[in-house]
Amino acid sequence: MLLYAFAWKRKAGAKWSYTLWEEHALRTMRVWKRVLFTGGLVVALLTASLSPSSAFLDKTRFATHLGVAYFCFHHWVLNPYRQGDFSAGAPHRTKAMIKGGAALLFAYHEVKVSAKIARLSKDPLLQKLSGGMAGLMTSFGDVGGRLKSGHFSPQDIESLKSATDSVESTATAGGRPINDVPVPVPGT
């Protein structure tokens, strides 16, 4: 009966002590937790290093990234431009231009990601759209850099609008029109 050799004892002013069996169980549990955590970490790293399937939700990922880019362009560049926030003498002009430039640089990144998805996809529509993405990406990057540095030209915004319209017309010609769908935000 070695298991009960150190039964629960309490000395005066001391804490309760464990039996040998309970100490062994606690040590074993700690070892298994470490092994399982390490194994899970290795599996996660191996899974992350593998490239995703080229056809897994390509259209959804493409639409998401391109939608985020369009939202940035529409919300922080096109609407303020139409409202006259970029014109000389407008209140908070510098702030609007810097926000617009930063939004265009973020949109550049999102268009770059969507162009990569379209280029690597086996879907014929995405392959067709990937050709027009290079011009859109270049326009967003160039105009974004100029706006962020404080240089504004109305022709830049118009060229961005025509670049987004060309991608939209290519999608419509491919049978997938791009529609601007307003979504109500709860609580506003």
Fold and architecture overview:
The chain is mainly alpha-helical. The protein has a domain at 58-173. It is 69% helix and 0% strand. The protein is built from five helices and no strands. The protein has helices at residues 20-49, 58-83, 93-120, 124-148, 154-173. Helix 2 runs antiparallel to helix 3, helix 2 runs antiparallel to helix 5 (154-173) and helix 3 (93-120) runs antiparallel to helix 4 (124-148). The protein is elongated. It starts with 19 loop residues before the first helix and ends in a 15-residue tail after the last helix. The model is unreliable at 1-8 (pLDDT under 50).
Task: List the topology elements.
Blueprint: H1 20-49, H2 58-83, H3 93-120, H4 124-148, H5 154-173
Helix pairs in contact: 2-3, 2-5, 3-4, 4-5
Q: Report low-confidence residues grouped into runs of 5 or more.
A: 1-8
Structural class: mainly alpha
Largest sheet entry: none
How large a portion of the residues is in β-strands, by DSSP E? under 5%
Shape by Cα distribution: elongated
Give the number of helices. Answer: 5
**Cα distance spanning the termini:** 71 Å
What value does the average pLDDT take?
Answer: 79
Give the helices and strands as they follow along the chain: HHHHH
**DSSP strand tally:** 0
Features:
disordered N terminus, 5 helices, single chain, mainly alpha
In short:
This protein is mainly alpha-helical.
